[in-house]
Amino acid sequence: MPLQLCSLSAHNFRLIEQLEIEPGPQVTLFWGQNGAGKTSILETVDFLSRGRSFRSRRLDALLRKGSRTLTVRGTVREAGVPTHLGIEKSARGRVLLCNHHKAETLSAHAARLPVVALHPDSHRLVQGGARYRRNYLDWSAFHVKPDFLPAWREYSRCLRQRNQVLRTRGSMQEMQAWTRRLAAAGERVDIARSSIIDEIKPIFDAYSRKLLPEAESTLRYLRGWPGEPESLEAALVRARSRERRSLATHWGPHRAELALSLNHQPAAQVASRGQQKLLAMSLLLAQVAHLQAHTRRDCVVLLDDIGAELDRDHAGALIREVAALGCQAFMTALAPQDADLQAWTQARMFHVKHGTCKPSG
């Protein structure tokens, strides 16, 4: 189902004092010198979707210097129906807007504008801690599996309560009650994640063969507790003495991992930075294609400085794969000739300088 961000405005976001543009339906390029504010514009799109940026979750890092409030607004058109979204954030809190009224939750807000960002730090999907890969799984589960979000919310609440019982050395009855509830919710989270990996893996394999034909990459999901036939509740019961010492829940989906290998070795240890980035890009492209295949929806793709640590051939191959997905894309580059826009039939360009954005070309 075609999805397009038709208008975008921002006020007091990083270097941007005021922004108001109409992005192109296929690809929009923001070009200019380093430090001009190009990445900040891409961040506003991510912020409009998730209430945070792919570069920082901290409000003080997003606020323009000397400002107290930032605002981002946009109009999303899907299947011909426009939806007006907005987020206002200050030290007093956050206000979500949908069609000019206060929105209910950030999750409902995010569901209206799926965004996938490919950026210089995307290699953390490979090199970073397991939480990066769990977040990757959970983005897809959130958008594709309707049962995932309530299960994850229940699991998170039970995990907090169970850890509190451990820290305060509560009664055995309390522990048993929270263990049962935690395990039931955790099993539901695991089912959703396992299904996501089963669906994404063949798509990832295809992309990794295209972008990394010289290497063999594999993807394996580890659910967060040992013993394939063993239930989470049984694993937690067996870990009780260890948990009494650590005062924290030892097993569960919060310990899950997505193991990436390159030529049968851990990718984080043996892959070069360029290979790590191509593996991460394969994961992210697969995520977009998976969303399209299982929901018939598109998403917005952000491409920030994709030439960093990639040669021209690999960067060009990546751009062509993004264009082939048919999603609306936003790109940054130092100059128009640095962006391979021939993969699209239409391109809209803006020159960014000192935080201002003007049409060019």
List the SSEs and their pairings.
Layout: E1 3-13, E2 16-21, E3 27-31, H1 38-50, H2 59-62, E4 69-78, E5 81-90, E6 93-98, E7 101-102, H3 106-112, E8 115-118, H4 124-127, H5 130-144, H6 148-167, H7 172-211, E9 217-222, H8 232-238, H9 240-246, E10 257-262, E11 265-266, H10 267-270, H11 273-295, E12 300-303, H12 312-325, E13 329-333, E14 347-353, E15 356-360
Helix pairs in contact: 5-7, 5-11, 6-7, 7-8, 7-11, 11-12
Describe the structure.
The structure is a single chain. This protein has 361 residues and is an alpha/beta fold. The chain has a domain of 179 residues: P-loop containing nucleotide triphosphate hydrolases (Rossmann fold), CATH 3.40.50.300. Helix content is 44%, strand content 25%. It has twelve helices and 15 strands. The strands form three sheets. A six-stranded antiparallel β-sheet has the order 2-1-4-5-6-7, with helices on one face. The chain has a six-stranded mixed β-sheet with strand order 8-12-13-3-14-15, sandwiched between helices. Strand 12, helix 12 and strand 13 form a beta-alpha-beta unit. Helix 11 runs parallel beside helix 12. The longest helix is centred in the middle third of the chain and has 40 residues. The protein is globular.
